[in-house]
Structure formats: C-alpha cells, structure tokens
C-alpha cells in the first residue's frame, strides 16, 4: 500500500486502453484516492463508465487549453480535499495532418496546438497544483523517445515532447525548494487512442519489438509500475529525470 492516504489528480484518461487508466488502476491498488478530469462530454462518458465502481469518484470537466477551467479544477480539489499529493500528466495532441509526411511541412497553427496541449499544459497545471502540494508532492508526465530521436511521422509531437521534457527539468528546479518533485516516464510505443492518429504506428511498434533488447512490446502495466515508483516515496530523491520504460530500445543505435 505505497500510496495509502495519498490523493492525486490524473489528467488524460480517454478510455480503458489509455496508459493513464492503467496508471490509475495501479495507483488505486496501492491505496491512492484519485480525481479524474475529462476534456469533453464524449470522453466524460468513458471516464464515468470506468469509474462507476469506485466510491464517490471525483470527475471534473477540464480542457487543458483553458486557464479558467484549470483554475476551477484546483479550486474544487481544494474545497473537497484541502491538499494534493500527486499529479499525473498524460495529455498529448497534434492535428492528424501534422502526424504524417514531413516535419518541415508543419503549419504554424499545428505547431502551436501541439505545444499548447502537450507541453505548456504541464506548466499550467503545476502553477495551480503547487498551492495544494507540500513536502513530498510529486508530478509525473508521460513522454516518448521521439523527443530525442527522429521517429518517422511523429514530427511536431516529437518536438512538443522535447519541450515537455525540458519543462520537467525547469519545473523540477522551480518546485524543488517546496519539496515537490517533477519527473517524466518515457514509454515505448503502446496502442492508444492518441497513438492511433500517428501514420504508420503499426510499423513503429514492429520496429521497436524487433530492435529492443527485450524483443517485445512495452506493456501498459510496466509503465504503470514505473509511474507508481516515481510518484511514491521510493523515488523521494529523484527529480527532473526521464525514466525510460521501453525494453531498452532507447539504448540502441537505430
């Protein structure tokens, strides 16, 4: 029961295949009490169905591009809980047209959207979360190897993930004096609603499976365990880091 008595917000659950939902299940197994946000009513229906067996789940509509909605979310958590122990950031998006072809063709608007939702949202959430977190608070964001390597068709999302990882380091520096840690978990390719929008994703998975030292796909449960570690007191001396959970693929030359 590593997370017994801990309360946290999970941002990014879309459906039962979401990495964020796998993380949520693992956290609840370890005793955590969770609140969930959803972007719109369509996704809200999925989240309500996933959490209907929980006792008094906190479900909050929140679009990470809206400062007003972010502020309202944390005001609600302050009223209901009074404090927050951890935050899981599992949000990423780029228009489908930007996830095929060449990065050089990325439009200004697609670049802005990808960075606003996938990277700036972490800073925006931390701005509000820090007031509810004290010593021992922890934030984990989900990333991918495309932040440091060129992955075909990942394009602007890779650049946005690079921005996300840089944000993790700067936020770790800013929030460290308050005893709040900020880290990222970089997962291997896993089929989710978000990844289905990447052209040629199946080929990306096959290449990963054939080249990773462990010679298999990354499993959501593995990412969930790593995130649990990063959120729990077991990683209390770790901040500003990116933990790769990809079967070793990230150490290979190609």
From TrEMBL:
Biological or metabolic pathway of the protein: Lipid metabolism; fatty acid biosynthesis
Amino-acid positions noted as binding substrate in the UniProt annotation, renumbered to this chain: 94
Entry-linked InterPro entries: Enoyl-ACP_Rdtase_NADH, NAD(P)-bd_dom_sf, SDR_fam
Domain of life: Bacteria
Annotated catalytic residues: 144, 154
Class of the enzyme per the UniProt entry, highest EC level: oxidoreductase
GO BP terms, alphabetized: fatty acid biosynthetic process
GO MF annotations in UniProt: enoyl-[acyl-carrier-protein] reductase (NADH) activity
UniProt keyword annotations, A-Z: Fatty acid biosynthesis, Fatty acid metabolism, Lipid biosynthesis, Lipid metabolism, NAD, Oxidoreductase
Catalytic activity: a 2,3-saturated acyl-[ACP] + NAD(+) = a (2E)-enoyl-[ACP] + NADH + H(+)
EC number: 1.3.1.9
Binding positions for NAD(+) per the UniProt entry: 12, 18-19, 39, 63-64, 91, 161, 190-194
Family: Belongs to the short-chain dehydrogenases/reductases (SDR) family. FabI subfamily.
Name used for this protein in its record: Enoyl-[acyl-carrier-protein] reductase [NADH]
Taxonomic lineage: Bacteria, Pseudomonadati, Acidobacteriota, Holophagae, Holophagales
């Amino acid at each position: 029961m590593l997370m017994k008595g801990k309360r946290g917000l999970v941002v990014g659950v879309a459906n039962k295949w979401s990495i964020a939902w796998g993380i949520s299940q693992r956290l609840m197994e370890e005793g955590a009490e969770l609140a969930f946000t959803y972007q719109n009513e369509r996704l809200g229906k999925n989240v309500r169905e996933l959490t209907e067996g929980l006792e008094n789940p906190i479900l909050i509509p929140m679009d990470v591009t809206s400062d007003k909605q972010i502020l309202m979310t944390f005001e609600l958590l302050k009223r209901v809980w009074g404090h927050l122990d951890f935050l899981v950031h599992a949000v990423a998006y780029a228009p489908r047209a930007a996830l095929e072809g060449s990065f050089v063709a990325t439009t200004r608007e697609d670049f802005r959207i990808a960075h606003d939702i996938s990277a700036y949202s972490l800073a925006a959430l931390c701005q509000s979360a820090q007031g509810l977190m004290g010593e021992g608070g922890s934030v984990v964001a989900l990333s991918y190897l495309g932040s440091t390597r060129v992955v075909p068709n990942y394009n602007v999302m890779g650049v946005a993930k690079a921005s996300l990882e840089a944000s993790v380091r700067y936020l770790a520096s800013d929030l460290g004096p308050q005893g709040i840690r900020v880290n990222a978990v970089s997962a291997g390719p896993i089929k989710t609603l978000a990844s289905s929008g990447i052209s040629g994703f199946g080929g990306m998975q096959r290449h990963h499976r054939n080249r990773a030292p462990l010679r298999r796909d990354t499993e959501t449960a593995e990412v969930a365990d790593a995130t649990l570690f990063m959120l729990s007191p077991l990683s209390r001396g770790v901040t500003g880091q990116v933990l790769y959970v990809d079967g070793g693929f990230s150490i290979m030359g190609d």
